[in-house]
Amino acid sequence: MKGNVTLRSLCVALVMAVMAGNAGAQDWKSALGGLLKDVIGDKTTTATSIIGTWTYVGPDCQFESDNLLAKAGGEVAAQNVEAKMKTVYDKIGMGGCQYTFGEDGSYSLTIKGKTISGTYTFDSEAKTVTMKGKLGIKTVAYVTVTGNSMSLVYNADKLMSVLKTVMGAVSSVNSTASTVSGIADKYDGLRLGFELKKQ
Fold first, then answer.
1. How many Å apart are CA 167 and CA 141, to the nearest integer?
2. pLDDT higher for 44 or 170?
3. DSSP class of residue 27?
4. What is the pTM of this model?
5. Which residues contact 52 (CB under 8 A, 6 or more apart)?
């Protein structure tokens, strides 16, 4: 029953996009892309689908629910948040960052020539990956896999601790703290992280 409602909603959205013509095509593309990621990604995100090496391509943000997304101002809010996060990620040097998830439950994260490794567990119900580093530090990310794309996002208020763990307490991370905190405080239920492509 839930699948029929979701499929009907998707069809209605597609019809509305066609009727809208060229006006606002980019907004419709973003909105439909987000809907497809949620609908299809939920079905295809499995313990097997996350295995492999994934390279950072840009920032990603999600809201815990469609209601929160609507309250925040929809796709426009998401695009604004991602634009601000791109500035943050560019500043700390996220380009070239890679996550690797192995079949044996091991993971590694490589950024700026530095590699952090440990173990991970995948929760198929919650669609989360819990990564535990060798120092015992745990991070929990929400994961969505659609084809060769992966969205890996964290609760917004936890992102700074994730970045500090990854990068170390370097000044470029510390100097972005107020920007990330400002974004996290502005939107309830916001998740921030990365869009990745499979290698």
1. 17
2. 44
3. H
4. 0.73
5. 100, 101, 198, 199
pLDDT band, very low/low/confident/very high, at 92 (cuts 50, 70, 90): confident
CB contact set of 34 (below 8 Å; sequence gap of 6+): 75, 78
Cα distances (angstroms) measured from residue 94 to each of 50, 71, 87, 109, 185? 20, 30, 10, 11, 23
DSSP 8-state code for residue 169: S
Q: Which amino acid belongs to residue 196?
A: L
Q: Which of 59, 38, 72, 67 is nearest to 143 (CA)?
A: 38
Read off the pLDDT of each residue in 97-122 and give the average, rounded to a whole number: 94
**Can you give 78-136 as a three-state secondary structure string?**
HHHHHHHHHHHHHHHCCCCCEEEECCCCEEEEEECCEEEEEEEEEECCCCEEEEEECCC
| pLDDT category of residue 27 using cuts at 50, 70 and 90 | very low
